[in-house]
Design a protein that fits this description.
Blueprint (H helix, E strand, L loop, with lengths): L5 H4 L6 E8 L8 E8 L6 E10 L2 H8 L8 E2 L3 E9 L11 E5 L9 E5 L4 E2 L6 H21 L7 E5 L4 H12 L3 E6 L2 H9 L2 E6 L5 H8 L5 E6 L6 H6 L1 E9 L13 H4 L5 E3 L10 H16 L7 E6 L3 H9 L6 E5 L1
Parallel strand pairs: 9-10, 9-12, 10-11, 12-13, 13-14, 15-16
Antiparallel strand pairs: 1-2, 1-4, 3-5, 3-7, 3-16, 5-6, 6-8
Helix pairs in contact: 3-4, 3-9
The chain binds NADP nicotinamide-adenine-dinucleotide phosphate.
Length: 340
Amino acid sequence: MLRIPAAMSQESTIEMKTHAIRIHQFGGPEVLRFEEVDLPDPAAGEARIRHKAIGLNFIDTYFRTGLYPSTLPAGLGSEAAGVVEAVGAGVKDVRVGDRVVYTGRPADAFAEARNFSASQLVPIPPAISDEQAAAVLLKGLTAWYLLRRSYPVRKGDAVLLYAAAGGVGSLASQWAKSLGVTVIGVVSTREKAELARSQGCEHIVMADDPDVPAAVRKLTGGEGVAAVYDSVGKDTFFASLDSLRPHGVMVSFGNSSGPVAPFAPSELARRHSLYVTRPVLFDFISTRDKLLVASAELFDVLQSGVLKINVNQRYALKDAAKAQADLESRKTTGSTVLIP
Ligand SMILES: NC(=O)c1ccc[n+]([C@@H]2O[C@H](COP(=O)([O-])OP(=O)(O)OC[C@H]3O[C@@H](n4cnc5c(N)ncnc54)[C@H](OP(=O)(O)O)[C@@H]3O)[C@@H](O)[C@H]2O)c1
């Protein structure tokens, strides 16, 4: 690979090459290709980041299957951490040599290096490693907005959290517990149940329980939970509504089993005036100010020890297809990173 000294790179016009995961068709993990791609100098407002670690997220699989739209051929990947190697005209937010982490689109993070909007780069505090930063930004900011914005939890609340041993779930359960919330976690295996308990879930309901709402009511003295954080989507939507107390909040934030089908508002009425929201992280960090405020809160809870990041799987970048296959077949727990 052609490397140019940092001092030169600010004005360089040398066309570089790098390696990245690309897809030329939508489909299963087998459509991923590890290819040599051009890496132009950063345009005005952009920085070039040399990746040290890349976060693996379920959302990447939606872009791969075509559930979320993109134009082919396309890259994949929504989050990475690394070092700023060059900056384009007008960039003031970061400098060459800064350690940064980011999440956002275009989804081209599965690459050794890439150009990205400098205003969306977050400086990594010295106490946090590149790998930790890549493992936590997207998932941790999601846990933050779920608990602080979509349904702001209150001490004493009981909530239901799906995929409690997964990436977002591991962080959300630790964080919710620290706020005095009783977390009922849903997981699919005994090992995941143990992990979820160790991360703050007071109760566990198994994902194959034929009557999740009944189990939840039993655990809440018949009342139901204040909020459900449901990332599973199609398979669990109505069981989640049935688990809520009157006026409860359904936060439907993912499609791990497929997207939720359209439903009638009367479904909310007959379950006692429920609320439903379908949030997306990027709406909560849509300006640099919002991004930095949210990231500061996330880094605070990491550095104070409230949140521990469990990087439970590591794969080489070129093995991203295997990483995605393992994520989709429910083999992973906590966070996963790809190493370029
Ligand atoms: N809207 C947003 O802003 C936003 C942001 C970040 C993530 N998300 C969503 O949050 C969810 C979690 O993301 P993540 O990256 O942290 O992944 P993850 O939770 O580490 O992995 C997904 C987990 O979902 C559970 N699951 C339940 N049904 C499944 C099915 N049919 N197929 C596969 N998995 C199933 C599995 O846990 P068990 O085996 O224990 O059931 C699996 O381990 C995803 O749905 C993602 O799209 C949404």
